[in-house]
Amino acid sequence: MKPTLEEVARLAGVSRSTVSRVINEHPSVSPETRQRVWKAIQEIGYRPHSVARSLATKRTRIIGVIIPEAITKIFSDQFFAILLQGAAQATNARGYQLILSLFDDPKRQEELYAKVLKNGYVEGAVVASAPPNDPLLRALKEDRLPTVSVGKQQGLPYVDVDNYGGGRLATEHLVQLGYRRIATITGPRDHVHVQERLAGYRDVLVEHGIGFEEELVAEGGFTEAGGMAAMQRLLPNRPEAVFVQGDTMAAGVLRALRAAGLRVPDDIALVSFDDAPLASLLDPPLTTVRQPIRLLGFMAVELLLNILEGAGGSHELVLPAELVVRGSCGAIRQNGGGR
User: Fold this and answer.
1) pLDDT tens per residue, range 269-309
2) What is the rounded average pLDDT of the residues 216-245?
3) Domain limits, the chain
4) What phi and psi values does residue 226 have, to the nearest 5 degrees?
5) Residue among 268, 269, 205, 275 nearest 245 (CA)
């Protein structure tokens, strides 16, 4: 039989209620009594009931990860799977539990907030891929639930990659390879990270005297189908190269170019963003800006747990981006003999 609270009390020579106060970290127990009770707990192997302890201490050691995107998109984009791996590693390392909240319409979002986030079930939340005007962000701020955003959000602690620098890296690489008519395919343009990547792209073009043309910008929604449709819209404008702001969209871009009878990189060059596992498996393999996706998830949870536990440090973290050169941009071919 499992040891009971009464057995701990008898061994420690205290009342059952005193044992309960020690387990629930009540300040009214003297250090000597506290030590005696914990010694008794260890000797007989008593394990406090985690749910009861959570109710008494108001600590559930559960955090939520919220991704306000269509469920089909979450399970088809490798970014989210890798992000969640990092988040899970961080919660496991710190003795917390993680719950994932998914929904695909505003009504479900309201139900989630009322049932899970507002009733004290979770101690804090990590939010990823939320547009700045999402009502969920406003509710989290108003209710003061400790929250960390993956990606910059006004008024919230955040972990992000250097999206502006990444946009510059991709565009500068194409300019250095000799391309001048460079298009870009973006995600939703109300997202801050999309605006920053676009700003990096635009600034490099202007600095090199090429100029920014709105007709060479198309939105692809961070989906494969969206990337394909965006590329089809851009083809009449005859770009020489394309900076695609996500690997999943780049897969759709390759399909569109193949259907149009164009070869990559012979007829048109590509540089992407993410460096998800998909990038090296496509034909040709993608030159892409690597963002440390798993580390983004890990550090977002670490930052949230530090806030919950009262640790100091910055509440804004920006990780570096890195260019990974493969076959889609034409650099390897140029190095072997020029275009």
Assistant:
1) 999 999 999 999 999 999 999 999 999 999 999 999 999 98
2) 97
3) 5-57, 62-161+294-319, 163-291+323-335
4) -65, -40
5) 275
Concatenated DSSP letters of 163-179: HHHHHHHHHHHHHHTT-
Distances (CA, A) of 166 to 197, 199, 210, 233: 7, 10, 19, 24
CATH fold for the domain made of 5-57 = 434 Repressor (Amino-terminal Domain) (1.10.260)
Q: For the purposes of burial, counting CB atoms within 10 Å of the CB of 110, is it exposed (0-12), middle (13-18) or buried (19 or more)?
A: middle
Q: What is the pTM of this model?
A: 0.80
Residue 246: which of 137, 158, 159, 129 has the closest Cα? Answer: 129
Complete DSSP assignment for 250-277: HHHHHHHHHHTT--TTTT-EEEEEE--T
* Strands 322-324 vs 287-290: parallel, antiparallel or unpaired: antiparallel
> Is domain 163-291+323-335 classified as CATH 3.40.50.12780?
no
Question: Is 246 in contact with 194 (CB distance < 8 Å)?
Answer: no
Distance, CA of 219 to chain centre: 21
The structure tokens listed for 10 are: 């008898």
Structure tokens of 222? Answer: 């961070």
Structure tokens at 245: 């702001």
Same fold yes or no, 5-57 and 62-161+294-319: no
CATH topology for the 62-161+294-319 domain:
Rossmann fold (3.40.50)
CA-to-CA separations, 248 to 68, 73, 76, 87, in angstroms, rounded: 18, 10, 8, 21
